[in-house]
Amino acid sequence: MEHKQEYPLYRPAKVIDVADEDETGKIQVRIIPELKEVPDDLLPWASPRKQSTTGISEEIGRHNVPDQDSVVIVVIYNESWSTIDYLEDGMSISEIYPYAKGIEDLGNIEEKEDFEYPQPRFERTKDGVVKAHDTEQGQLGLYHPSGLYVWINPAGELFVRKFTRVLVSGENVEFEMNDEDGLVRIKTETVEVEADTYQVNDGSDSVVLFSPLEEIIEKLLEHTHTAPSGPTSPAHESNQTPLSTLKPNLRDMESKTITSD
Amino acid sequence: MAEYIGYQIEVEMEGVEFTIHPSELEITLRDSIHSFYSSAAFSVQDVSGIFTEHGAFKNGVPYRIKLGRANQEPAYNSYVVSHSSIDDVATPGFVSGEVTANMVHQFLSLQGKESSAFDGEISGFVEQLVADGDFEELLIEPTSYSRIWYRPLWSQEETIRMLCRKAYSTNSEGTPFYCFTDSKNRFHFESYETLFEKSPVKDYVFRPESEEGYSNNTVYTMLPVSPKYSSSWDSWHHAQYWMTPEGEIQEDVRTLLDITSAEGNVPFLGQAELPTSYEFEWTEKEEPDRESRIAQNFKNGLFLDKYIIRVPLDSEAVAGETVNITTLYYSENGRETSPATSGKYLIESSKHEWVGKRQTAYSELLVSRPRIAYPSGYLIGGRTFGA
User: Taking CB atoms and an 8 Å cutoff, what residues of chain B touch A38?
Assistant: First the structure.
Protein backbone atom coordinates (compact mmCIF):
# COMPACT_ATOMS: atom_id res chain seq x y z
CA MET A 1 0.00 0.00 0.00
CA GLU A 2 2.88 2.30 0.66
CA HIS A 3 3.60 4.91 -1.93
CA LYS A 4 6.66 3.82 -3.86
CA GLN A 5 8.02 6.31 -6.32
CA GLU A 6 11.52 7.01 -7.52
CA TYR A 7 12.68 10.55 -6.92
CA PRO A 8 13.42 12.90 -8.50
CA LEU A 9 10.29 13.09 -10.63
CA TYR A 10 10.20 15.05 -13.88
CA ARG A 11 6.84 16.57 -14.75
CA PRO A 12 5.41 19.22 -17.07
CA ALA A 13 4.01 22.21 -15.25
CA LYS A 14 2.17 25.37 -16.20
CA VAL A 15 3.55 28.68 -14.91
CA ILE A 16 0.84 30.32 -12.79
CA ASP A 17 2.75 33.27 -11.32
CA VAL A 18 6.23 34.76 -11.61
CA ALA A 19 5.98 37.51 -8.96
CA ASP A 20 8.54 36.08 -6.55
CA GLU A 21 8.72 38.25 -3.44
CA ASP A 22 12.35 37.36 -2.89
CA GLU A 23 13.25 38.05 -6.53
CA THR A 24 15.24 34.82 -6.76
CA GLY A 25 13.64 33.59 -9.96
CA LYS A 26 11.02 31.35 -8.37
CA ILE A 27 7.82 30.61 -10.26
CA GLN A 28 4.50 29.19 -9.06
CA VAL A 29 3.56 26.09 -11.00
CA ARG A 30 0.65 23.74 -11.52
CA ILE A 31 2.22 20.33 -11.90
CA ILE A 32 0.38 18.05 -14.25
CA PRO A 33 -1.38 15.80 -13.44
CA GLU A 34 -0.76 15.48 -9.70
CA LEU A 35 -1.78 19.02 -8.70
CA LYS A 36 -4.50 19.54 -11.27
CA GLU A 37 -7.18 20.23 -8.66
CA VAL A 38 -5.17 22.24 -6.14
CA PRO A 39 -6.30 25.89 -5.73
CA ASP A 40 -3.93 28.45 -7.25
CA ASP A 41 -2.91 29.99 -3.93
CA LEU A 42 -1.72 26.63 -2.58
CA LEU A 43 0.37 25.65 -5.57
CA PRO A 44 4.11 25.24 -4.98
CA TRP A 45 6.89 27.63 -6.00
CA ALA A 46 9.69 26.14 -8.03
CA SER A 47 13.22 27.51 -8.03
CA PRO A 48 15.51 27.68 -11.05
CA ARG A 49 17.76 24.67 -10.92
CA LYS A 50 20.89 25.58 -9.02
CA GLN A 51 23.15 23.25 -10.89
CA SER A 52 25.15 24.05 -13.94
CA THR A 53 27.88 22.49 -15.97
CA THR A 54 29.31 25.97 -16.48
CA GLY A 55 29.00 26.87 -12.81
CA ILE A 56 27.55 29.69 -10.75
CA SER A 57 29.15 31.89 -8.14
CA GLU A 58 28.98 35.28 -6.55
CA GLU A 59 30.19 36.75 -9.82
CA ILE A 60 28.40 34.57 -12.35
CA GLY A 61 24.71 33.98 -12.76
CA ARG A 62 21.79 33.99 -15.06
CA HIS A 63 18.27 35.23 -14.61
CA ASN A 64 15.85 33.76 -17.09
CA VAL A 65 12.36 33.48 -15.63
CA PRO A 66 9.79 31.75 -17.85
CA ASP A 67 6.72 33.67 -18.95
CA GLN A 68 3.42 33.32 -17.13
CA ASP A 69 1.14 30.69 -18.71
CA SER A 70 4.08 28.99 -20.40
CA VAL A 71 4.87 25.33 -19.75
CA VAL A 72 8.12 24.24 -18.12
CA ILE A 73 9.63 20.98 -16.93
CA VAL A 74 9.96 20.73 -13.16
CA VAL A 75 12.01 18.39 -11.01
CA ILE A 76 10.45 17.15 -7.76
CA TYR A 77 13.20 15.99 -5.45
CA ASN A 78 11.40 14.50 -2.46
CA GLU A 79 8.18 12.81 -1.47
CA SER A 80 6.85 15.79 0.45
CA TRP A 81 7.18 17.91 -2.70
CA SER A 82 8.96 20.55 -0.66
CA THR A 83 11.90 20.95 -3.03
CA ILE A 84 10.94 21.65 -6.62
CA ASP A 85 13.15 23.14 -9.33
CA TYR A 86 12.38 24.04 -12.89
CA LEU A 87 14.71 23.44 -15.77
CA GLU A 88 15.92 26.06 -18.18
CA ASP A 89 18.56 26.09 -20.84
CA GLY A 90 22.15 26.33 -19.76
CA MET A 91 23.07 27.62 -16.36
CA SER A 92 20.74 29.15 -13.85
CA ILE A 93 20.59 32.04 -11.50
CA SER A 94 21.01 31.21 -7.87
CA GLU A 95 20.71 32.80 -4.51
CA ILE A 96 24.44 33.43 -4.87
CA TYR A 97 24.02 35.83 -7.80
CA PRO A 98 20.65 37.47 -7.24
CA TYR A 99 18.38 39.44 -9.51
CA ALA A 100 19.00 42.72 -7.65
CA LYS A 101 22.69 42.52 -8.45
CA GLY A 102 22.01 42.21 -12.15
CA ILE A 103 19.63 45.17 -12.04
CA GLU A 104 22.35 47.19 -10.34
CA ASP A 105 24.70 46.46 -13.24
CA LEU A 106 22.11 47.62 -15.76
CA GLY A 107 21.38 50.79 -13.78
CA ASN A 108 23.92 52.79 -15.83
CA ILE A 109 21.87 52.49 -18.99
CA GLU A 110 20.16 55.86 -19.20
CA GLU A 111 17.89 55.09 -22.12
CA LYS A 112 16.22 52.02 -20.60
CA GLU A 113 12.64 51.94 -19.42
CA ASP A 114 12.27 50.87 -15.78
CA PHE A 115 12.31 47.11 -15.34
CA GLU A 116 9.53 45.24 -13.61
CA TYR A 117 10.43 41.93 -11.93
CA PRO A 118 11.02 39.29 -13.25
CA GLN A 119 12.20 41.25 -16.30
CA PRO A 120 14.69 41.52 -17.82
CA ARG A 121 16.18 38.12 -18.49
CA PHE A 122 19.91 38.46 -18.19
CA GLU A 123 23.15 36.65 -18.01
CA ARG A 124 26.26 37.92 -16.29
CA THR A 125 29.71 36.46 -16.80
CA LYS A 126 32.75 36.76 -14.58
CA ASP A 127 34.25 39.63 -16.63
CA GLY A 128 31.27 41.74 -15.57
CA VAL A 129 29.51 41.70 -18.94
CA VAL A 130 25.71 41.57 -18.72
CA LYS A 131 23.48 40.55 -21.61
CA ALA A 132 19.90 41.54 -20.95
CA HIS A 133 16.56 41.26 -22.70
CA ASP A 134 13.30 42.65 -21.33
CA THR A 135 10.82 40.46 -23.18
CA GLU A 136 7.82 42.35 -21.82
CA GLN A 137 8.79 45.81 -23.07
CA GLY A 138 10.97 44.88 -26.02
CA GLN A 139 14.24 46.40 -24.89
CA LEU A 140 17.56 44.64 -24.94
CA GLY A 141 21.25 45.18 -25.01
CA LEU A 142 24.68 44.60 -23.66
CA TYR A 143 26.48 46.24 -20.77
CA HIS A 144 30.28 46.24 -20.46
CA PRO A 145 32.08 46.91 -17.15
CA SER A 146 34.04 49.77 -18.84
CA GLY A 147 30.74 51.65 -18.94
CA LEU A 148 30.09 51.02 -22.63
CA TYR A 149 26.63 49.79 -23.48
CA VAL A 150 24.59 49.04 -26.54
CA TRP A 151 20.90 49.37 -25.93
CA ILE A 152 17.73 49.20 -28.01
CA ASN A 153 14.83 50.87 -26.25
CA PRO A 154 11.13 49.95 -26.63
CA ALA A 155 10.74 52.61 -29.34
CA GLY A 156 13.31 50.80 -31.44
CA GLU A 157 16.03 53.41 -30.93
CA LEU A 158 19.60 52.15 -30.80
CA PHE A 159 22.09 53.66 -28.39
CA VAL A 160 25.81 52.99 -28.30
CA ARG A 161 27.07 54.93 -25.33
CA LYS A 162 30.24 55.66 -23.44
CA PHE A 163 32.62 54.06 -25.91
CA THR A 164 36.25 55.11 -26.12
CA ARG A 165 36.77 54.16 -29.72
CA VAL A 166 34.69 52.83 -32.59
CA LEU A 167 36.48 51.47 -35.61
CA VAL A 168 34.69 50.08 -38.63
CA SER A 169 36.95 48.98 -41.42
CA GLY A 170 37.14 46.92 -44.58
CA GLU A 171 39.60 46.40 -47.41
CA ASN A 172 39.17 49.91 -48.85
CA VAL A 173 37.20 51.79 -46.24
CA GLU A 174 37.83 52.78 -42.64
CA PHE A 175 35.60 54.76 -40.32
CA GLU A 176 36.81 55.72 -36.90
CA MET A 177 35.35 57.60 -33.98
CA ASN A 178 37.78 58.25 -31.13
CA ASP A 179 36.25 59.67 -27.98
CA GLU A 180 39.56 60.51 -26.36
CA ASP A 181 40.78 62.59 -29.30
CA GLY A 182 37.37 63.84 -30.33
CA LEU A 183 38.16 62.61 -33.80
CA VAL A 184 35.94 61.24 -36.52
CA ARG A 185 37.96 59.94 -39.40
CA ILE A 186 36.84 58.53 -42.72
CA LYS A 187 39.41 56.92 -44.94
CA THR A 188 38.03 56.08 -48.35
CA GLU A 189 38.17 56.92 -52.06
CA THR A 190 34.74 58.52 -52.39
CA VAL A 191 32.30 59.94 -49.93
CA GLU A 192 28.83 60.26 -51.34
CA VAL A 193 26.18 62.23 -49.51
CA GLU A 194 22.58 62.77 -50.52
CA ALA A 195 20.83 65.57 -48.69
CA ASP A 196 18.78 68.71 -49.16
CA THR A 197 20.42 70.76 -46.45
CA TYR A 198 23.86 70.64 -44.88
CA GLN A 199 24.26 72.41 -41.58
CA VAL A 200 27.21 72.91 -39.25
CA ASN A 201 27.36 74.01 -35.62
CA ASP A 202 23.62 74.11 -35.09
CA GLY A 203 23.12 76.07 -38.29
CA SER A 204 25.41 78.99 -37.40
CA ASP A 205 27.73 78.00 -40.17
CA SER A 206 27.28 76.35 -43.55
CA VAL A 207 28.85 73.77 -45.76
CA VAL A 208 29.78 75.12 -49.20
CA LEU A 209 28.43 73.08 -52.05
CA PHE A 210 30.12 73.06 -55.37
CA SER A 211 27.15 72.98 -57.81
CA PRO A 212 25.51 76.37 -56.90
CA LEU A 213 28.96 77.96 -57.03
CA GLU A 214 29.48 76.52 -60.45
CA GLU A 215 26.20 78.05 -61.60
CA ILE A 216 27.24 81.47 -60.32
CA ILE A 217 30.52 81.27 -62.12
CA GLU A 218 28.76 80.35 -65.32
CA LYS A 219 26.50 83.38 -65.01
CA LEU A 220 29.44 85.66 -64.27
CA LEU A 221 31.11 84.44 -67.41
CA GLU A 222 28.06 85.36 -69.42
CA HIS A 223 27.84 88.78 -67.85
CA THR A 224 28.49 91.96 -70.14
CA HIS A 225 28.80 95.67 -69.45
CA THR A 226 27.91 98.64 -71.80
CA ALA A 227 31.02 100.67 -72.60
CA PRO A 228 31.49 103.93 -74.68
CA SER A 229 32.94 101.78 -77.35
CA GLY A 230 29.95 99.63 -77.18
CA PRO A 231 29.03 96.62 -75.10
CA THR A 232 31.72 94.25 -73.99
CA SER A 233 31.38 90.69 -75.00
CA PRO A 234 29.07 89.01 -74.49
CA ALA A 235 26.42 91.41 -75.60
CA HIS A 236 24.30 92.94 -72.93
CA GLU A 237 20.65 92.53 -73.31
CA SER A 238 17.91 93.90 -71.22
CA ASN A 239 16.74 90.51 -70.29
CA GLN A 240 20.17 89.38 -69.09
CA THR A 241 20.42 88.36 -65.40
CA PRO A 242 21.86 91.09 -63.26
CA LEU A 243 24.49 90.03 -60.75
CA SER A 244 22.22 91.07 -57.93
CA THR A 245 19.89 88.27 -58.81
CA LEU A 246 22.75 85.81 -58.38
CA LYS A 247 23.30 86.78 -54.76
CA PRO A 248 20.43 84.77 -53.37
CA ASN A 249 21.93 81.76 -55.04
CA LEU A 250 24.71 81.90 -52.53
CA ARG A 251 22.17 80.85 -49.95
CA ASP A 252 21.90 77.64 -51.87
CA MET A 253 25.42 76.91 -50.86
CA GLU A 254 24.17 76.52 -47.35
CA SER A 255 23.75 72.84 -47.20
CA LYS A 256 21.73 70.36 -45.30
CA THR A 257 22.79 70.29 -41.69
CA ILE A 258 25.97 68.50 -40.85
CA THR A 259 25.59 68.60 -37.13
CA SER A 260 28.52 68.75 -34.83
CA ASP A 261 27.09 66.34 -32.29
CA MET B 1 -23.62 -15.08 21.14
CA ALA B 2 -22.79 -12.07 23.22
CA GLU B 3 -20.97 -14.03 25.92
CA TYR B 4 -19.59 -17.54 25.98
CA ILE B 5 -17.73 -19.13 28.90
CA GLY B 6 -16.53 -15.78 30.14
CA TYR B 7 -15.65 -14.28 26.77
CA GLN B 8 -17.34 -11.82 24.44
CA ILE B 9 -17.26 -13.22 20.92
CA GLU B 10 -19.24 -11.64 18.14
CA VAL B 11 -19.02 -11.63 14.35
CA GLU B 12 -21.32 -9.52 12.19
CA MET B 13 -21.47 -9.50 8.43
CA GLU B 14 -22.97 -6.28 7.04
CA GLY B 15 -24.83 -5.73 10.31
CA VAL B 16 -26.16 -9.32 10.53
CA GLU B 17 -24.84 -11.53 13.29
CA PHE B 18 -23.09 -14.72 12.26
CA THR B 19 -25.15 -17.54 13.80
CA ILE B 20 -22.34 -19.99 14.27
CA HIS B 21 -21.51 -21.36 17.67
CA PRO B 22 -18.21 -19.97 19.09
CA SER B 23 -16.84 -23.45 19.39
CA GLU B 24 -16.93 -23.60 15.59
CA LEU B 25 -15.00 -20.36 15.21
CA GLU B 26 -11.40 -19.30 15.30
CA ILE B 27 -10.73 -15.58 15.52
CA THR B 28 -7.44 -13.73 15.41
CA LEU B 29 -7.06 -9.94 15.79
CA ARG B 30 -3.72 -8.33 15.01
CA ASP B 31 -2.29 -4.84 15.20
CA SER B 32 1.15 -3.26 15.27
CA ILE B 33 2.64 0.19 15.57
CA HIS B 34 4.59 -0.69 12.41
CA SER B 35 1.48 -1.58 10.39
CA PHE B 36 -0.94 1.03 9.10
CA TYR B 37 -3.99 -1.25 9.21
CA SER B 38 -5.05 -3.60 11.95
CA SER B 39 -6.15 -6.94 10.65
CA ALA B 40 -8.21 -10.00 11.55
CA ALA B 41 -8.81 -13.52 10.46
CA PHE B 42 -11.53 -15.95 11.29
CA SER B 43 -12.06 -19.55 10.38
CA VAL B 44 -15.40 -21.26 10.31
CA GLN B 45 -16.73 -24.70 9.41
CA ASP B 46 -19.05 -23.86 6.53
CA VAL B 47 -20.45 -27.36 6.53
CA SER B 48 -23.33 -26.79 4.14
CA GLY B 49 -21.44 -24.19 2.13
CA ILE B 50 -24.26 -21.70 2.61
CA PHE B 51 -21.98 -18.81 3.67
CA THR B 52 -19.76 -19.37 0.71
CA GLU B 53 -22.82 -19.61 -1.56
CA HIS B 54 -23.95 -16.21 -0.37
CA GLY B 55 -20.58 -14.62 -1.01
CA ALA B 56 -19.75 -14.12 2.65
CA PHE B 57 -16.03 -14.41 2.02
CA LYS B 58 -15.68 -12.35 -1.10
CA ASN B 59 -13.16 -9.52 -1.10
CA GLY B 60 -14.57 -6.28 0.27
CA VAL B 61 -17.38 -7.81 2.34
CA PRO B 62 -17.58 -5.81 5.60
CA TYR B 63 -17.42 -7.46 9.01
CA ARG B 64 -17.48 -6.33 12.60
CA ILE B 65 -15.71 -8.53 15.10
CA LYS B 66 -15.83 -8.30 18.87
CA LEU B 67 -13.46 -10.23 21.13
CA GLY B 68 -12.62 -9.85 24.81
CA ARG B 69 -13.08 -11.11 28.28
CA ALA B 70 -16.57 -10.70 29.76
CA ASN B 71 -15.39 -8.28 32.41
CA GLN B 72 -13.49 -5.86 30.16
CA GLU B 73 -14.06 -3.64 27.17
CA PRO B 74 -13.64 -5.90 24.15
CA ALA B 75 -11.66 -5.25 21.03
CA TYR B 76 -14.34 -4.23 18.56
CA ASN B 77 -13.43 -3.37 15.04
CA SER B 78 -14.72 -3.13 11.47
CA TYR B 79 -12.91 -4.97 8.71
CA VAL B 80 -13.26 -5.89 5.07
CA VAL B 81 -12.29 -9.22 3.59
CA SER B 82 -8.99 -8.98 1.73
CA HIS B 83 -8.43 -12.64 0.99
CA SER B 84 -10.02 -15.96 1.86
CA SER B 85 -9.12 -19.58 1.49
CA ILE B 86 -12.00 -19.86 -0.98
CA ASP B 87 -9.77 -17.90 -3.37
CA ASP B 88 -7.30 -20.75 -3.26
CA VAL B 89 -9.77 -23.51 -4.09
CA ALA B 90 -9.09 -24.76 -7.54
CA THR B 91 -11.95 -27.23 -7.89
CA PRO B 92 -15.15 -25.69 -9.25
CA GLY B 93 -18.20 -26.40 -7.13
CA PHE B 94 -16.23 -26.89 -3.92
CA VAL B 95 -18.07 -24.65 -1.51
CA SER B 96 -18.15 -26.42 1.84
CA GLY B 97 -15.63 -27.14 4.59
CA GLU B 98 -13.40 -24.89 6.67
CA VAL B 99 -13.01 -21.41 5.35
CA THR B 100 -10.51 -18.83 6.60
CA ALA B 101 -11.17 -15.20 5.80
CA ASN B 102 -8.37 -12.66 6.17
CA MET B 103 -9.51 -9.12 6.79
CA VAL B 104 -8.07 -5.63 6.96
CA HIS B 105 -9.40 -2.61 8.81
CA GLN B 106 -12.33 -1.06 6.94
CA PHE B 107 -10.41 2.20 6.34
CA LEU B 108 -8.77 0.32 3.49
CA SER B 109 -12.05 0.28 1.57
CA LEU B 110 -12.34 4.07 1.80
CA GLN B 111 -9.05 4.80 0.08
CA GLY B 112 -9.13 6.98 -3.01
CA LYS B 113 -6.62 8.94 -5.08
CA GLU B 114 -7.03 12.68 -4.84
CA SER B 115 -5.28 15.85 -5.93
CA SER B 116 -5.39 18.32 -3.06
CA ALA B 117 -3.33 20.45 -0.70
CA PHE B 118 -3.46 21.48 2.94
CA ASP B 119 -1.97 24.63 4.44
CA GLY B 120 -1.05 24.03 8.08
CA GLU B 121 0.45 21.54 10.45
CA ILE B 122 0.78 17.87 9.65
CA SER B 123 -1.50 16.87 12.50
CA GLY B 124 -4.31 19.02 11.05
CA PHE B 125 -3.92 17.42 7.64
CA VAL B 126 -3.92 13.91 9.14
CA GLU B 127 -7.09 14.72 11.05
CA GLN B 128 -8.73 15.77 7.80
CA LEU B 129 -7.55 12.63 5.99
CA VAL B 130 -8.98 10.21 8.54
CA ALA B 131 -12.18 12.16 9.23
CA ASP B 132 -14.31 9.72 7.23
CA GLY B 133 -12.65 6.65 8.69
CA ASP B 134 -15.36 5.85 11.25
CA PHE B 135 -12.75 5.45 13.97
CA GLU B 136 -13.70 5.06 17.59
CA GLU B 137 -11.05 7.57 18.61
CA LEU B 138 -8.39 9.68 16.91
CA LEU B 139 -5.13 9.84 18.85
CA ILE B 140 -3.32 12.47 16.82
CA GLU B 141 -0.44 14.26 18.49
CA PRO B 142 -0.14 17.95 17.57
CA THR B 143 2.85 18.58 15.34
CA SER B 144 5.05 21.65 15.10
CA TYR B 145 5.84 22.03 11.45
CA SER B 146 3.51 24.16 9.34
CA ARG B 147 3.62 24.57 5.57
CA ILE B 148 1.61 23.58 2.49
CA TRP B 149 1.37 19.81 2.22
CA TYR B 150 0.38 18.05 -1.01
CA ARG B 151 -1.65 15.00 -1.81
CA PRO B 152 -0.59 14.47 -5.43
CA LEU B 153 -3.11 11.85 -6.51
CA TRP B 154 -2.31 9.73 -3.48
CA SER B 155 -4.63 7.78 -1.25
CA GLN B 156 -5.23 8.84 2.35
CA GLU B 157 -2.92 6.08 3.54
CA GLU B 158 -0.08 7.01 1.21
CA THR B 159 -0.36 10.64 2.26
CA ILE B 160 -0.45 9.84 5.97
CA ARG B 161 2.57 7.56 5.67
CA MET B 162 4.50 10.36 3.99
CA LEU B 163 3.38 12.86 6.64
CA CYS B 164 4.40 10.43 9.35
CA ARG B 165 7.95 10.50 8.06
CA LYS B 166 7.92 14.31 8.15
CA ALA B 167 6.16 14.75 11.49
CA TYR B 168 7.95 16.58 14.25
CA SER B 169 6.77 17.77 17.62
CA THR B 170 8.50 19.82 20.28
CA ASN B 171 7.15 17.28 22.79
CA SER B 172 8.47 14.25 20.97
CA GLU B 173 12.02 14.55 22.37
CA GLY B 174 13.44 13.92 18.94
CA THR B 175 11.68 10.59 18.51
CA PRO B 176 9.90 9.54 15.30
CA PHE B 177 6.17 9.32 14.72
CA TYR B 178 4.15 6.16 14.11
CA CYS B 179 0.79 5.86 12.37
CA PHE B 180 -1.40 2.81 12.79
CA THR B 181 -4.86 1.55 13.64
CA ASP B 182 -5.20 -0.65 16.70
CA SER B 183 -7.60 -3.49 17.41
CA LYS B 184 -9.89 -1.16 19.34
CA ASN B 185 -10.66 0.85 16.21
CA ARG B 186 -8.50 3.79 17.24
CA PHE B 187 -6.27 5.65 14.83
CA HIS B 188 -2.84 6.66 16.15
CA PHE B 189 -0.51 9.34 14.86
CA GLU B 190 1.89 9.68 17.77
CA SER B 191 5.56 9.99 18.54
CA TYR B 192 7.48 7.25 20.27
CA GLU B 193 7.89 9.50 23.29
CA THR B 194 4.13 9.99 23.62
CA LEU B 195 3.44 6.29 23.16
CA PHE B 196 6.02 5.22 25.69
CA GLU B 197 5.02 7.80 28.30
CA LYS B 198 1.43 6.54 28.47
CA SER B 199 0.27 4.98 31.71
CA PRO B 200 0.47 1.19 31.62
CA VAL B 201 -2.83 -0.53 30.91
CA LYS B 202 -1.77 -3.61 32.81
CA ASP B 203 0.70 -4.85 35.41
CA TYR B 204 1.85 -8.28 34.39
CA VAL B 205 3.83 -10.67 36.53
CA PHE B 206 6.13 -13.32 35.20
CA ARG B 207 7.18 -15.81 37.82
CA PRO B 208 9.23 -18.92 37.35
CA GLU B 209 6.73 -21.17 39.15
CA SER B 210 2.96 -21.27 39.18
CA GLU B 211 2.28 -22.43 42.69
CA GLU B 212 0.18 -19.32 43.31
CA GLY B 213 -1.95 -20.18 40.32
CA TYR B 214 -2.69 -18.17 37.23
CA SER B 215 -4.59 -14.95 37.03
CA ASN B 216 -5.38 -12.41 34.36
CA ASN B 217 -2.07 -10.72 35.19
CA THR B 218 -0.01 -13.81 34.63
CA VAL B 219 2.58 -13.96 31.92
CA TYR B 220 2.58 -17.54 30.69
CA THR B 221 5.76 -17.28 28.68
CA MET B 222 8.35 -14.58 28.11
CA LEU B 223 10.78 -15.08 25.27
CA PRO B 224 13.57 -12.61 24.42
CA VAL B 225 13.87 -11.40 20.86
CA SER B 226 17.24 -10.20 19.70
CA PRO B 227 17.17 -6.84 17.96
CA LYS B 228 18.76 -6.78 14.58
CA TYR B 229 21.93 -4.97 15.55
CA SER B 230 23.61 -5.43 12.24
CA SER B 231 20.82 -3.97 10.12
CA SER B 232 20.00 -1.08 12.39
CA TRP B 233 23.52 -0.08 13.32
CA ASP B 234 23.84 2.25 10.38
CA SER B 235 20.90 4.29 11.46
CA TRP B 236 22.02 4.84 15.02
CA HIS B 237 24.69 7.37 14.26
CA HIS B 238 23.46 9.92 11.84
CA ALA B 239 24.88 13.15 10.48
CA GLN B 240 23.41 15.73 8.21
CA TYR B 241 25.37 18.29 6.25
CA TRP B 242 24.01 21.33 4.50
CA MET B 243 25.20 24.52 2.91
CA THR B 244 24.08 27.94 4.08
CA PRO B 245 23.26 30.68 1.56
CA GLU B 246 26.69 32.11 2.41
CA GLY B 247 28.30 28.90 1.23
CA GLU B 248 29.33 27.53 4.62
CA ILE B 249 29.05 23.81 5.30
CA GLN B 250 27.10 23.05 8.48
CA GLU B 251 26.75 19.71 10.19
CA ASP B 252 24.49 18.08 12.74
CA VAL B 253 25.67 14.79 14.17
CA ARG B 254 23.54 12.77 16.57
CA THR B 255 23.52 9.29 17.94
CA LEU B 256 20.77 7.12 19.31
CA LEU B 257 22.16 7.80 22.75
CA ASP B 258 20.94 11.39 22.42
CA ILE B 259 17.41 10.01 22.36
CA THR B 260 17.56 7.04 24.67
CA SER B 261 19.80 8.03 27.50
CA ALA B 262 17.87 9.67 30.30
CA GLU B 263 17.97 9.66 34.07
CA GLY B 264 20.44 6.86 34.40
CA ASN B 265 18.60 4.65 31.92
CA VAL B 266 20.81 3.57 29.10
CA PRO B 267 20.65 1.55 25.93
CA PHE B 268 22.97 -1.36 25.47
CA LEU B 269 25.17 0.64 23.17
CA GLY B 270 28.31 2.61 23.74
CA GLN B 271 28.46 6.06 22.29
CA ALA B 272 29.87 6.18 18.79
CA GLU B 273 31.51 9.44 17.92
CA LEU B 274 31.57 8.97 14.19
CA PRO B 275 28.39 8.90 12.14
CA THR B 276 27.80 5.79 10.08
CA SER B 277 25.28 7.39 7.77
CA TYR B 278 24.82 10.89 6.53
CA GLU B 279 22.86 13.00 4.12
CA PHE B 280 23.61 16.27 2.40
CA GLU B 281 21.38 19.04 1.21
CA TRP B 282 22.36 22.00 -0.91
CA THR B 283 20.92 24.87 1.09
CA GLU B 284 19.69 25.40 4.59
CA LYS B 285 16.15 24.27 5.24
CA GLU B 286 13.83 24.95 8.11
CA GLU B 287 14.99 23.37 11.33
CA PRO B 288 11.85 21.26 12.07
CA ASP B 289 12.16 19.55 8.72
CA ARG B 290 15.68 18.48 9.59
CA GLU B 291 14.59 17.34 13.05
CA SER B 292 11.95 15.08 11.60
CA ARG B 293 14.36 13.56 9.12
CA ILE B 294 16.97 12.84 11.76
CA ALA B 295 14.32 11.33 14.05
CA GLN B 296 13.23 9.16 11.13
CA ASN B 297 16.71 7.69 10.92
CA PHE B 298 16.36 6.31 14.43
CA LYS B 299 13.01 4.69 13.75
CA ASN B 300 14.33 1.14 13.74
CA GLY B 301 16.72 1.61 16.61
CA LEU B 302 14.34 2.29 19.48
CA PHE B 303 13.35 -1.30 20.22
CA LEU B 304 16.43 -2.55 21.92
CA ASP B 305 15.13 -4.74 24.74
CA LYS B 306 12.43 -6.88 23.24
CA TYR B 307 10.27 -9.85 24.34
CA ILE B 308 7.33 -11.87 23.17
CA ILE B 309 4.97 -12.55 26.06
CA ARG B 310 1.87 -14.71 26.13
CA VAL B 311 -0.90 -13.70 28.54
CA PRO B 312 -4.58 -14.50 29.09
CA LEU B 313 -6.81 -12.80 26.51
CA ASP B 314 -6.50 -9.08 27.21
CA SER B 315 -8.25 -6.76 24.77
CA GLU B 316 -6.87 -3.73 26.64
CA ALA B 317 -3.37 -4.68 25.63
CA VAL B 318 -3.16 -3.47 22.05
CA ALA B 319 -0.42 -1.90 19.96
CA GLY B 320 0.64 1.53 21.16
CA GLU B 321 -0.22 0.91 24.81
CA THR B 322 2.30 0.27 27.55
CA VAL B 323 2.42 -2.46 30.18
CA ASN B 324 4.45 -3.06 33.32
CA ILE B 325 6.11 -6.42 33.60
CA THR B 326 7.49 -7.67 36.88
CA THR B 327 9.73 -10.67 36.54
CA LEU B 328 10.58 -12.65 39.64
CA TYR B 329 13.46 -14.97 40.35
CA TYR B 330 14.80 -16.85 43.31
CA SER B 331 18.08 -15.96 44.91
CA GLU B 332 19.70 -16.86 48.20
CA ASN B 333 17.59 -14.08 49.69
CA GLY B 334 14.41 -15.66 48.45
CA ARG B 335 12.15 -14.39 45.68
CA GLU B 336 13.34 -11.11 44.19
CA THR B 337 12.36 -8.80 41.40
CA SER B 338 14.72 -8.89 38.44
CA PRO B 339 15.99 -5.37 37.71
CA ALA B 340 17.22 -6.37 34.26
CA THR B 341 13.91 -7.48 32.78
CA SER B 342 11.27 -5.83 34.97
CA GLY B 343 9.88 -2.49 33.99
CA LYS B 344 7.72 -0.64 31.53
CA TYR B 345 7.39 -1.84 27.97
CA LEU B 346 5.67 -0.56 24.86
CA ILE B 347 3.43 -3.00 23.00
CA GLU B 348 4.78 -3.02 19.45
CA SER B 349 2.33 -5.64 18.21
CA SER B 350 -0.53 -7.62 19.63
CA LYS B 351 -2.35 -10.78 18.63
CA HIS B 352 -5.59 -11.78 20.32
CA GLU B 353 -6.82 -15.23 19.56
CA TRP B 354 -9.89 -17.32 20.24
CA VAL B 355 -9.64 -21.02 19.38
CA GLY B 356 -13.13 -22.51 19.46
CA LYS B 357 -12.05 -26.11 19.21
CA ARG B 358 -9.93 -25.84 22.34
CA GLN B 359 -12.19 -23.27 24.03
CA THR B 360 -9.17 -21.12 24.82
CA ALA B 361 -8.28 -17.49 24.35
CA TYR B 362 -4.96 -15.73 24.82
CA SER B 363 -3.01 -12.67 23.78
CA GLU B 364 0.48 -12.64 22.40
CA LEU B 365 2.30 -9.35 22.76
CA LEU B 366 5.56 -8.14 21.29
CA VAL B 367 6.85 -5.70 23.87
CA SER B 368 10.03 -3.65 23.87
CA ARG B 369 11.73 -0.65 25.40
CA PRO B 370 14.50 1.68 24.30
CA ARG B 371 16.49 1.61 27.51
CA ILE B 372 17.06 -0.44 30.62
CA ALA B 373 17.06 0.76 34.19
CA TYR B 374 20.35 -0.58 35.42
CA PRO B 375 21.21 -0.31 39.09
CA SER B 376 23.31 2.66 40.16
CA GLY B 377 27.00 2.03 39.72
CA TYR B 378 26.58 -0.63 37.08
CA LEU B 379 29.64 -0.59 34.88
CA ILE B 380 29.40 -1.10 31.17
CA GLY B 381 31.83 -0.15 28.46
CA GLY B 382 34.16 1.56 30.91
CA ARG B 383 31.49 4.02 31.94
CA THR B 384 29.51 4.18 35.15
CA PHE B 385 25.85 4.70 34.49
CA GLY B 386 23.42 6.16 36.91
CA ALA B 387 26.16 7.67 39.04
Answer: 115-117, 150
